[in-house]
Design a protein that fits this description.
- With 45 residues, this protein is mainly alpha-helical.
- It has one domain.
- The chain contains two helices and two strands, in the order E-H-E-H.
- Strands 1-2 form a two-stranded parallel sheet.
- Helix 1 (16-21) links the parallel strand 1 (9-10) and strand 2 (24-25).
- The longest helix is centred in the C-terminal third of the chain and has 12 residues, at 33-44.
Length: 45
């Protein structure tokens, strides 16, 4: 799924393999990671 995304996001508590793959790491999932992704996308599009 990350490979198909134009901007791959992952929360800070994701697996090391996801971080190593190159996903853009956001806040921890308990610290509004989805809201952060939405803000980034709003600014870009």
């Amino acid at each position: 799924m990350l490979a198909l995304s134009a901007i791959p996001f992952a929360p800070a508590n994701c697996a090391k393999e996801v971080k190593d793959w190159g996903a853009r790491v956001l806040n921890h999932c308990d610290d509004h990671a989805v809201a952060q992704a939405i803000e980034i996308l709003d600014k870009r599009y």
